[in-house]
Design brief:
Shape: globular
Largest sheet: 8 strands, mixed
Radius of gyration: 19 Å
Number of domains: 1
CATH class: Alpha Beta
Number of helices: 9
Strand content: 15-25%
CATH superfamily: Vaccinia Virus protein VP39
């Protein structure tokens, strides 16, 4: 993943991430006792929900800080630090669930991700995921891009926001049957009066690497004011999220035939 997390602030101010994810859990439909992986489990809030649904659950996240928080909040559950591209299970999963994770993985690694998901799921098993889709946060990112450009800087687009037409074939190539795919707008309310600047500080980190704190503050405040008329409504900040939600089942038993680019 291309971000370092502040797990305490994430848990306190951005609980909407896992709260929206609760709706995605309904797509699983696995019988109780099924082995389910929560991939990119963060602070473990949805891992706990999966356990309450009767699943044998393992939470996996690439962030040691997030896993430490998850273990402290949910000591009765099983968590481990691992990478979505390379994690390996001694016992294949009946299902892999992932919420708000895949857009953090670089586009050139998405094929590797799909291949590894296929390797870790039983034939007939389920993948359920939701993440940022085409146009997610575009008002914020395009305004930041303009603020960077005014200072002679390039704003790197570090997120991967695909369409259904772009993402479904990646899964199908690895033996998945895409059973359900939705792309939809989901304007997302922020908790505080400083909601938009807090959102930028939490989720837009790599573009500011190497930029002075003073210039970073100028860019953030300029962006906030530029978007106030558009994203500030009835005393609350909204970020213009677009989500892609997918349910797929693994058709073939032999998942070792994937062709990965060098």
């Amino acid at each position: 993943m291309n971000i370092q997390w502040d797990s305490q602030n994430y848990t306190k101010q951005f609980s909407f991430v896992h709260q929206y994810g609760e709706d995605v859990l309904k797509l699983l439909g696995c019988p109780p006792g099924s082995r389910v992986i929560d991939l990119g489990c963060g602070n473990g809030a949805l891992t706990e929900k999966l356990a309450q649904m009767g699943y044998q659950v393992l939470g996996i996240d690439d962030s040691e800080e997030m896993i430490q928080t998850a273990r402290s909040l949910h000591p009765e559950l099983d968590f481990r630090v691992d990478n979505a591209l390379t994690f390996s299970l001694s016992q294949k999963a009946d299902a892999i669930f992932s919420n708000a994770v895949f857009h953090w993985i670089d586009g050139h690694d998405q094929k590797r991700l799909a291949a590894n998901l296929a390797r870790q799921i039983k034939p007939g098993g389920i993948l359920v995921c939701e993440f940022g889709g085409k146009g997610c946060g575009e008002a914020v990112h395009s305004t930041l891009e303009k603020s960077f450009a005014r200072r002679g800087l390039v704003y790197p687009r570090t997120f991967y926001f695909p369409t259904i037409g772009e993402y479904a074939p990646l899964l199908e190539e690895q033996g998945f049957r895409v059973e359900c795919a939705l792309l939809f707008d989901r304007p997302t309310v922020q908790k505080t009066e400083q909601g938009l600047e807090n959102w930028i500080r939490m989720f837009v980190k790599e573009p500011f690497a190497g930029i002075s704190d003073e210039m970073k503050e100028e860019i953030i405040q300029e962006t906030v004011e530029a978007l106030r008329g558009r994203l500030y409504q009835d005393g609350k900040w909204f970020v213009d999220y677009v989500r892609i939600r997918i349910k797929a089942s693994l058709l073939r038993a032999d998942n070792q035939t994937e062709k990965l680019d060098d």
